[in-house]
Amino acid sequence: MSLFRPRSSLKLYKAATSFPTAVAPATSRCISQITSWWSKPGSESDFADRIQSTEDKSSLVSQESTPDPFATHQPDYSARIDHGTSTFSPVPKRVMDGSEPEENVAAAVLSGAPVDLQARQVRIYRPAKTATQSGTWHSHHWRMDWDILQKGHRWENPLMGWQSTGDSLQGTHLNFKTKEDAILFAQKQGYEYFVQEPNERRIVPKAYANNFLHEPKPLKHIKTK
Amino acid sequence: MVINPTYLAQTSRSSTNWQAARRRVLKSYRAWLRAVRPSALSPSSIKWPTRMLIVFPLGGTQAPEIQQMYSLNMPVSRIRTKVRSEFEKHRYVNQLDVVDVLLFQSHSEFQETLNYWKQLAHVMKYFTAEENPRARLPKDFISGFLEGRN
């Protein structure tokens, strides 16, 4: 067998960028914005221009900055089939064929990975800190995870009751040092990806002396008796 | 001790420009067509740079015969169609490095097939779309939904 068929593939599809807003609560996920292949995430002023707020000003709706000829948000039922296609295979939106702009290496074309991988969505995130402990070492890297399949995700084995799955990537994840590494990998392989920004811990500096500061108005809360 | 290279081994090389890549692709395609010859299948992953003209060789049958080797039950024309479709799959690649790697993969497939390193299953992988009724995508949303696909 050839030694040069790594397991990569597919085309990147969505780039999710985070736009911190004043109204967003601290624990909310960042808003994803669909951008085109070659448009870079805009500055804050571009973002302000593209926002279309709803009537009650409660949500933010942003539009694509430039119409992307490669971007089709409909599944492609005539996509090519390879030996890994099965009744569990999701339908891809676009299969990488090397004709994309040359920013990214078309690794999906070379890898020999199943075309199904280009149909599945991938999440790039930082794993959360274990809630029961204070150590944060395991939440420093970035992880890439595949969304589950609706149909072949998991079922009970009729003989022994074990958990069977039709998903070859079940429980698989890739680790990266930085978010940009993960995004470049997803773009190179033609995956549809979105980035989930981590919830950063907000440490409020406190001083005991503030309990005793003078306030001219009546105190809202009496801290000392 | 001298290590003799295997049959059809080729040193690694890269294309200097698109014309060189085009010549290499044509040479690879010709080799595949000649190796297919009366019989079955020839899986080929030869790649095709953009704007290339297709030149078919005139006759010429070489020694190795893929169809007879793997005892495939299909006419030569079907195999040659498959060779051609594998080439066409990569017609619009616009990166020379990718074309080089595809050429390497094409030649490695060629060598593996003609040295009989493959087995029937490996050769038939290229024909799953036609042979395997379960290897298909739904034709529209409703049929996919009724099948219960992902």
From TrEMBL, chain A:
<dbReference type="InterPro" id="IPR038532">
    <property type="entry name" value="NDUFS4-like_sf"/>
</dbReference>
<keyword id="KW-0249">Electron transport</keyword>
<keyword id="KW-0999">Mitochondrion inner membrane</keyword>
<keyword id="KW-0496">Mitochondrion</keyword>
<dbReference type="InterPro" id="IPR006885">
    <property type="entry name" value="NADH_UbQ_FeS_4_mit-like"/>
</dbReference>
<keyword id="KW-0679">Respiratory chain</keyword>
<comment type="similarity">
    <text>Belongs to the complex I NDUFS4 subunit family.</text>
</comment>
<dbReference type="GO" id="GO:0005743">
    <property type="term" value="C:mitochondrial inner membrane"/>
</dbReference>
<dbReference type="GO" id="GO:0022900">
    <property type="term" value="P:electron transport chain"/>
</dbReference>
<feature type="region of interest" description="Disordered">
    <location>
        <begin position="53"/>
        <end position="85"/>
    </location>
</feature>
<keyword id="KW-0472">Membrane</keyword>
<keyword id="KW-0809">Transit peptide</keyword>
<dbReference type="Pfam" id="PF04800">
    <property type="entry name" value="NDUS4"/>
</dbReference>
<keyword id="KW-0813">Transport</keyword>
<protein>
    <recommendedName>
        <fullName>NADH dehydrogenase [ubiquinone] iron-sulfur protein 4, mitochondrial</fullName>
    </recommendedName>
</protein>
<comment type="function">
    <text>Accessory subunit of the mitochondrial membrane respiratory chain NADH dehydrogenase (Complex I), that is believed not to be involved in catalysis. Complex I functions in the transfer of electrons from NADH to the respiratory chain. The immediate electron acceptor for the enzyme is believed to be ubiquinone.</text>
</comment>
Automatic annotation (TrEMBL), chain B:
<comment type="similarity">
    <text>Belongs to the complex I LYR family.</text>
</comment>
<keyword id="KW-0679">Respiratory chain</keyword>
<dbReference type="Pfam" id="PF13233">
    <property type="entry name" value="Complex1_LYR_2"/>
</dbReference>
<dbReference type="GO" id="GO:0005743">
    <property type="term" value="C:mitochondrial inner membrane"/>
</dbReference>
<dbReference type="InterPro" id="IPR045299">
    <property type="entry name" value="Complex1_LYR_NDUFA6_LYRM6"/>
</dbReference>
<keyword id="KW-0813">Transport</keyword>
<dbReference type="InterPro" id="IPR016488">
    <property type="entry name" value="NADH_Ub_cplx-1_asu_su-6"/>
</dbReference>
<keyword id="KW-0999">Mitochondrion inner membrane</keyword>
<keyword id="KW-0496">Mitochondrion</keyword>
<dbReference type="GO" id="GO:0045271">
    <property type="term" value="C:respiratory chain complex I"/>
</dbReference>
<protein>
    <recommendedName>
        <fullName>NADH-ubiquinone oxidoreductase 14.8 kDa subunit</fullName>
    </recommendedName>
</protein>
<dbReference type="GO" id="GO:0006979">
    <property type="term" value="P:response to oxidative stress"/>
</dbReference>
<keyword id="KW-0472">Membrane</keyword>
<keyword id="KW-0249">Electron transport</keyword>
